[in-house]
Amino acid sequence: xxxxxxxxxxxxxxxxxxxxxxxxxxxxxxxxxxxxxxxxxxxxxxxxxxxxxxxxxxxxxxxxxxxxxxxxxxxxxxxxxxxxxxxxxxxxxxxxxxxxxxxxxxxxxxxxxxxxxxxxxxxxxxxxxxxxxxxxxxxxxxxxxxxxxxxxxxxxxxxxxxxxxxxxxxxxxxxxxxxxxxxxxxxxxxxxxxxxxxxxxxxxxxxxxxxxxxxxxxxxxxxxxxxxxxxxxxxxxxxxxxxxxxxxxxxxxxxxxxxxxxxxxxxxxxxxxxxxxxxxxxxxxxxxxxxxxxxxxxxxxxxxxxxxxxxxxxxxxxxxxxxxxxxxxxxxxxxxxxxxxxxxxxxxxxxxxxxxxxxxxxxxxxxxxxxxxxxxxxxxxxxxxxxxxxxxxxxxxxxxxxxxxxxxxxxxxxxxxx
Length: 418
Fold this sequence. Notes:
The chain is α/β, with parallel strands linked by helices. It has two domains: 3-205 and 395-411, 3-Layer(aba) Sandwich (Rossmann fold); 216-391, 3-Layer(aba) Sandwich (Rossmann fold), CATH 3.40.50. The protein is 43% helix and 16% strand. The chain has 16 helices and 14 strands. The strands form two sheets. It has an eight-stranded mixed sheet, with helices on both faces. The chain is globular and about 65 Å long. The protein starts with 10 loop residues before the first strand and ends in a 7-residue tail after the last helix. Mean pLDDT is 93; it is low at 414-418.
């Protein structure tokens, strides 16, 4: 199907710094899912995302016209985006840090070009830096309608900038609507701005038709999992995910439940350090690093495990989990979750109902909650409640809210002001 030949009432540009580069790539996968749902609802959608080495500049994926803008030359030296994410990349690479102004300029230039070429009506920016700022500038320059979706990473970055409050106010005042992905993010945005932004809370969703319960016994046989209990951690191996505290907790748990294994799915800049920690703690037979896991295999691992563990923390830059998409994915597969009582996590994990909440940076408490969950709770019943929770976050429900917002701003030139 060629979207360019359809006469849409209005066209939308999704402006993002993360979008899958190839089949199976999980970078910005939730943006792809949102875009697909908007197309199902009859909207004309274009995506503007950063280019990456060996990736097409323009292509059409499932009816989505994707444009990728290069921001540094030669292309092979583009280091700012993807991988561990922009915040981590600029902390660990001087070249990535130097590319920030080029990224900002080429993104704005490409956005203005795309708006004029495709006659875009609405820009929906994801993350305040740099997309929210460039979306606001495009509105200022071209009079385009702008919806800013605020995620935690861009917001926390602005909190550290010398003029972050003024940049945030500029973005908010040059947005026709503000969407935050959790109540936690909305609260932090309002504090930074200094007044109630009247933002609506609409989290990113999950595909509840894909993340479904499967036969656990047959999957354990398929993957040769013989242990009585299986724990699962899914996520980038970066500071805010708190994986090191889970490994410390495993030293305690193995003494009470020795027939147990922790599976760690993901990669990141802390991978080597975490593997060394496992080695020094003599946890070889209790912890396995899976590396990058394909989407279909990830669903299997959710079903194999007894519990998903997300021991998130505030990192030294103030970042933490907005909501935790892996929490919702595991819940959709009928799995209870043990996660830190931090950030937006308590908005989905209800202590004693669909999981247990732990004290951040406290291996003893993490270990205690793991043992209690495995020995004192009915995990099947708790998992059923978790699946009911996940249904509230289905893409069908989330995309419906997005379409309502887009319909509203397409008809009324509304501006969010103090």
